[in-house]
């Protein structure tokens, strides 16, 4: 029986906004602020655990309902946590009105920050890092990749930002040079699907010339047709480490996979456990990008890793714009996942360093040097909440005028005829 101190007493959810540059992708451009929700789970013992997730309005509504439903749960019983969240019915706008929390992946997305916060509590209670709860760290540093974006020089109506424009191969190479010099990254990913594929192929060739030893990846977020993807795959033979989501859907990916020489990777056609069986049967992908934010937390991401190992799939890690709690969780997970052998994605370099909500407990950890982050060995996630910063970023959320991410609507304000319907090429 759990002692009373182990039960969830209270859950606090604070939406925050942080500045984000105008990064371009296949569906539009990043808005001036990215949204996150900061989750605090307080146990009866008084120990508080932290989680971080998406901050869109629909997700916040689901998080708040889940928060109410987990009060009283034993923080060591993450199965019960998952059961309570999975049992919620979704009556919010945007739901499909059927049973359960819309879809398994939605329940996993809602569950994730609560599970992470409970693991943080467990680690703090035991005086052990979260990696120890996941089987132990198999590496003390986690590699991340340089995540390049085409971008506008600044948000329309504002001054140029500190990165400036990146709209052609030379500027992409300059951006990579900055990121590699500043953070030491040893792998490079280009977010594509923005310009005609031949321009993006030219950018990859320019990166290869400038960085002959860096593994390279390109990710057009399914903006290409199968014939286009096959052509690009042939063009980039011998140059790419993997080709990420060139086309939509498991069937389309399988057709491309049969025709191109390099492995295909995905964070779009395999995003829930239900997708694994058909993807494996069709031999659609060779690498899955895990992401604990939508796979149900760290424990379920470890289960994903084991499944990938069983079926001979490689494992990498996906990211979206995020703050320090997510970086800590991603780093613990990667450190405790032996078959996560690719450098992980992170949007970290695009964040203003002043915009965060955490204090790092152990100096020297959770900072990028040599393209990697040192894994904390302090209890829990190894980050504490900076309450002043939380209040500041919450105020920013209240005043920024954004309640949901919508890259397409923001892009259309400046290009009204923009149509992101895939395949764009
Ligand atoms: O931040 C972006 O614009 C990315 O395109 C992001 O939304 C994707 O989810 C992503 O990082 C990916 O597909 O790898
Ligand atoms: Mg991707």
UniProtKB/TrEMBL annotation:
Enzyme class: lyase
The protein's Enzyme Commission number: 4.2.1.40
Source organism of this protein record: Actinophytocola gossypii
Catalysed reactions, semicolon-separated: D-glucarate = 5-dehydro-4-deoxy-D-glucarate + H2O
PANTHER family on file: D-GALACTONATE DEHYDRATASE-RELATED, GLUCARATE DEHYDRATASE
Lineage: superkingdom: Bacteria
InterPro entries listed in its UniProt record: DgoD-like, Enolase-like_C_sf, Enolase-like_N, Enolase_C-like, GlucD-like, Mandelate_racemase_C
Keywords annotated in UniProt: Lyase, Magnesium, Metal-binding
Domain Mandelate racemase/muconate lactonizing enzyme C-terminal intervals: 169-263
Pathway involvement of the protein, from the record: Carbohydrate acid metabolism; D-glucarate degradation; 2,5-dioxopentanoate from D-glucarate: step 1/2
Descriptive protein name: glucarate dehydratase
């Amino acid at each position: 029986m759990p002692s009373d101190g182990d039960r969830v007493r209270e859950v606090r959810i604070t939406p925050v906004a942080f500045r984000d540059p105008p990064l371009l992708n296949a569906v539009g451009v990043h808005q001036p602020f990215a949204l996150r929700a900061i989750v605090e789970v307080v146990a009866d013992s008084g120990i508080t655990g932290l989680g971080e997730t998406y901050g869109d309005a629909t997700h916040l509504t689901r998080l708040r309902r889940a928060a109410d439903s987990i009060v009283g749960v034993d923080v060591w019983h993450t199965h019960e946590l998952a059961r309570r969240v999975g049992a919620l019915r979704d009556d919010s706008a945007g739901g499909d009105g059927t049973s359960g929390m819309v879809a398994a992946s939605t329940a996993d997305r809602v569950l994730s920050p609560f599970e992470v916060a409970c693991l943080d509590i467990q680690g703090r209670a035991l005086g052990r890092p979260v990696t120890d709860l996941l089987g132990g760290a198999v590496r003390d540093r986690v590699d991340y990749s340089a995540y390049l974006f085409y971008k506008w020089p600044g948000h329309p109506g504002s001054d140029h930002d500190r990165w400036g424009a990146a709209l052609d191969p030379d500027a992409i190479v300059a951006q990579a040079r900055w990121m590699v010099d500043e953070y030491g990254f040893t792998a490079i990913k280009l977010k594509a699907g923005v310009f005609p594929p031949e321009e993006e192929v030219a950018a990859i060739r320019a990166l290869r010339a400038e960085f002959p030893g860096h593994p390279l990846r390109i990710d057009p977020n399914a903006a290409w047709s199968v014939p286009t993807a096959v052509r690009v795959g042939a063009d980039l033979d011998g140059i790419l480490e993997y080709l990420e989501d060139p086309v939509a859907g498991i069937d389309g990916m399988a057709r491309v996979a049969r025709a191109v020489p390099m492995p295909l990777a995905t964070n779009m056609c395999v995003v829930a456990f239900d997708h694994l069986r058909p993807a494996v049967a069709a031999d659609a992908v060779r690498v899955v990008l895990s992401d604990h934010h939508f796979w149900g937390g760290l424990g379920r991401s470890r289960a994903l890793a084991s499944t990938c190992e069983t079926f001979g799939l490689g494992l990498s890690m996906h990211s979206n714009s995020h703050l320090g709690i997510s970086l800590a969780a991603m780093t613990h997970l990667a450190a405790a996942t032996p078959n996560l052998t690719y450098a992980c994605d992170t949007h970290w370099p695009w964040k203003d360093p002043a915009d965060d909500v955490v204090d790092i407990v152990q100096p020297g950890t959770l900072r990028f040097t040599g393209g990697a982050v040192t894994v904390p060995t302090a209890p829990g996630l190894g980050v504490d909440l900076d309450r002043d910063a939380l209040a500041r970023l919450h105020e920013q959320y209240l005043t920024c005028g954004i309640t949901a991410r919508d890259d397409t609507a923001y892009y259309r304000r400046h290009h009204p005829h923009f149509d992101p319907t895939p395949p764009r090429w």
